Amino acid sequence: YGVLYIRGSSADGKVQIDMDSRYSVLYERRGDRWKIVHIHQSMPNLEQREGEYYPKTLTEQVQKAQEEAGRMALLAQRDGLTGLINYHTFEEIWKKGDRTEKWLFIVDLDDFKKINDTYGHIVGDKVLKTFGHLLARQFREHDIAGRIGGDEFMVLYTGISAEEAADRMEGVNIRLGEMAAAGEFGCPVSISYGVEDSRQFAAAEEMVAAADRKMYRQKRLKQGRSGEQIR
Fold first, then answer.
1. Do strands 2-9 and 191-197 pair parallel, antiparallel, or not at all (unpaired)?
2. Pairing between strand 16-30 and 33-42?
3. In whole angstroms, how large is the CA radius of gyration of the chain?
4. Is the pTM of this model over 0.85?
5. 152-158 and 102-109 as β-strands: parallel, antiparallel, unpaired?
6. Are 87 and 148 in contact, with CB atoms under 8 Å apart?
7. CA count, 13 A, side-chain hemisphere, 22
8. What is the DSSP code string of 127-163?
9. Residue 151: active-site member
10. Phi/psi of residue 230, nearest 5 degrees
11. pLDDT, tens digit, for every residue of 75-95?
C-alpha cells in the first residue's frame, strides 16, 4: 500500500499534472514464489478537492448513494403530476396499518374527458394538479390522500365518525366550487365520490372497488339517469 505524488507537464506545456494517487497491491505466496494477484490505483477526477487523495471519500460516496436511493424511493411512492401517493403506496400503507375507524372516499372528476377534449390536455393536467393540491391542503397529518390514476383520487380519513368524514369531504367539495367559480381551473370542475367503512374489508382492493361503485352511482344520479338512492 502506498501513495504516489505525480507532478509534470506535456511537452507543449498545455497539460499540467499535479496530483496525489494512492495504490494498493495484493499478492500471495505460491510455493517458493510471490505472485501479484491484484493491483488497484485510485485516480482523481474533476470533483477531487485539494488535499483529498481519493476522488471522493468513501463516506461521501455512501452518502450520495443513499440520497439517490432515497430520492428514487420517493419518486416510486408518489404520483409524478400531483405529488400525492400512488395506489401501490396506498396498498402498502394499508397492509401495515391497523383496522381502526377509517373512511375511504373515492373521488372522481366529472366529465374529465370533456375537459381534455374541450380545453386541451394542458388545462386537464392543471385541473388534476390543482385538485391534488387542494386535497393535500385539506386533510390532516395522519389522513391519507392519493391519486389512483387518471382522474380518480382517494382520501382515507382516520379516527373520526362517518358524519365528520362526510363533512370534511363536503368541505373539499365546497372549496372546489369556490375555486372553480374564481376561475382557478380555467374551466368548470365538479366531483363525484363514494365512501366505505374500512373495517368491513380485509383487502384494500375490495374496499376501493366498493367505494368506486358508490362513486359511479352518485355520478349517474347527478346525470339524471337513475332514481336510485345512495346509501
1. unpaired
2. antiparallel
3. 30
4. no
5. antiparallel
6. yes
7. 10
8. HHHHHHHHHHHHS-TTSEEEEEETTEEEEEEESS-HH
9. yes
10. -85, 135
11. 567 888 888 988 888 888 887
